[in-house]
Amino acid sequence: MAVSDKDFTVGVIGAGAMGQGIVQVGLEGGCKIVLHDAKPGGAEAARDLVFGRLDRLVEKGRLEADAVAAMKERLEIAADLAGMAPCQVVIEAVFEDLELKRRIFGELEKHVAADAILASNTSSLPIAAIARGCEARGRVAGMHFFNPVPLMKLVEIIKGPETEDAVAATLAELGRRMGRTPVTVKDAPGFLVNTGGRAYTTEGLRLLHEGVGTPAQIDAIMKDCCGFRMGPFELLDLTGIDVNYPVSMIVYEGYLHDPRLKTVPHHKALYEAGRLGRKTKAGFYRYDDKGGILDAPSPDHATDAAAPSTVILAEDDPRLTEFCAGLGISISEVDDGVSPILCAPIGEDATTLAARTGRDYRRLVALDLTPDISRRITIMTAPGADPAMRDAVAALVGREGRKVTAIQDSPGFVAQRIRAMVGNLSCEMAQIGLASPAEIDLAMTLGLNYPQGPLAMVDAMGVATTCRILDRLQAITGEDRYRPSLWLRRRALLGLSATMAA
Predict the structure, then answer these.
(1) Which end of the chain has fewer CB within 10 Å, C or N?
(2) Which helix (H) or strand (E) holds 379?
(3) In this structure, is residue 458 part of a structural domain?
(4) Which segments of 398-485 does DSSP mark as H helices, in order?
(5) Active site residue 257
(6) Predicted model pTM
(7) Does 142 lie in the same domain as 204?
(8) Does the annotation count 194 as an active-site position?
């Protein structure tokens, strides 16, 4: 039976939030649905919730009443797994327990047709491990939806090492019938989105761990300067520490402790303390009953200092010269010994630049000119710097209404580090063949609401510039966490786009 056939039947095992979402989009796609949940009354309760959501869509004018009535007729409750016998595809959506999933798949093989497809909605467990106990492993694949399913358009189709091409193609077609955008991914820890998404939050966590900035400062920079809808700490609190910490560890351990995927002790501490984010009203922020952030410190650097009349440039930098011209500030060719010294490092911190150039670190103020600075600009100083120099420069760059965030010394500031790490991890996913460059960018924008695909982001920053940031981060920190992917390095050396396929 073809996926497009009217009577195409899909089984859903597990009636939690994900299972309910899959049922809803399956019904909206015209499929027949058979729902089973091991908890007595669980499937019936889920059915009522799904029907209630469909009725509300009728009230809002998004669906027709007759269409919803027909959808309700297409849903059947199965008392046990034997009720999955008529299904062409069965999607398992129980919680992340490998042995449980294996038992379910083994039992399903006793009841469904020989050509029925068995799919898991797992977000991180290897499909190969789930299929291990099956007799017909070629029909087992992953079909990973994103929460909330009715709103998130992406679905990852995961091919295990023995998954047949026709099986993956059928699931992709089913995803399209359900109104989702399918992306085919190789079986690997965390698959595509849950692996690629690690960089944004874990590098934010690393910056917090190093004392570079507060959650509010880092979030503001990534939103105002880089176009992300949420900062990394807002995102961590929204998804829940009880979700993102275990997934971070699954991916980190799955890639055999690759330092690019490492989280920090504070992440674990929040998890163990039960400070799980919005759901417990406390995580990286505190929350009120409506989910609003309470008492967050301002990310803005407030000062009543006077702007300087003259500045010195630490080194010849056309970007910085143009920026100063736009501010109408005079640049002295001779160091007068008292004026602020400005620099705009790429991948360096103020300390390293001062040591390299021999400039007075006490008067040196670094500005990040790489992201969008129309609304906010990030400045930083070396240890021991004169706060009066920082405040004078903050007054200068913020006097036209632009907000200023002053952070502690950091190679690559905040925006350079996080964006370079996001791009580098996606380059590595392209290098190891998790998906094509186009599918990586599509998945990351649909699955994580990034302002642009991470490989396109590398192109926008400059492939060579991104590689340079990472090289300097690795040199300064001594950590392989920042080693550039070969995908990135080769394209930087050859002047090629990061989105160019191998």
Answers:
(1) C
(2) strand 376-380
(3) no
(4) 415-431, 437-448, 454-461, 463-477
(5) no
(6) 0.93
(7) no
(8) yes
Specify the pLDDT at position 124: 82
From the list 120, 121, 123, 244, the catalytic residue is: 123
pLDDT digits (tens, 9 = 90+) for 102-129: 999 999 999 999 999 999 999 888 999 9
Same-domain check for residues 290 and 318: no
For residues 340 and 404, give the distance between their C-alpha atoms in angstroms, rounded to a whole number.
17
Angle (deg, nearest 10), helices 215-224 and 198-209: 140
Pairing of strands 403-407, 376-380: parallel
Express each pLDDT in 208-238 by its tens digit.
999 999 999 999 999 999 999 999 999 999 9
Domain with residue 91: its CATH number is: 3.40.50.720
> Pairing mode, if any, of strands 330-331 and 310-313?
parallel
Q: Are 182 and 175 within 8 A, CB to CB?
A: yes
Q: Is residue 64 located within the same domain as residue 208?
A: no
Looking at the structure of the chain, the number of domains it has is 3
Residues 6+ apart with CB under 8 A from 383: 351, 409
The single residue of 36, 92, 121, 144 carrying the catalytic annotation is 144
Query: Over the stretch 361-418, which tens digit does the pLDDT of each residue have?
Result: 999 999 999 999 999 999 999 999 999 999 999 999 998 889 999 999 999 999 999 9
Distance CA 449, CA 104 (A): 33
135 is catalytic: no
- Contact 28/50 with Cβ under 8 angstroms? no
Same domain, 112 and 59: yes
Examine the residue annotation and report whether 301 is marked as an active-site residue of this protein. Answer: no
Within a domain: 494: no
Element (H, E) at 57: helix 42-59
- 10 Å CB burial of residue 105 (0-12, 13-18, 19+) is buried
Q: Which residue out of 28, 156, 234, 348 is catalytically annotated?
A: 156
Q: Does residue 207 share a domain with residue 175?
A: no
Catalytic residue among 120, 121, 194, 410: 194
Same domain, 202 and 177: no
pLDDT, mean of residues 181-194: 94
Structure tokens at 285: 């922020």
CA distance to 173, 193, 297, 400, 453, per residue, from 182 (Å)? 8, 12, 41, 46, 16
**Can you state the percent helix, strand and coil of the chain, rounding each to 5?**
45, 15, 40
The domain of 250 spans 194-294
Contact between 361 and 345 under an 8 Å Cβ cutoff? The reply is no
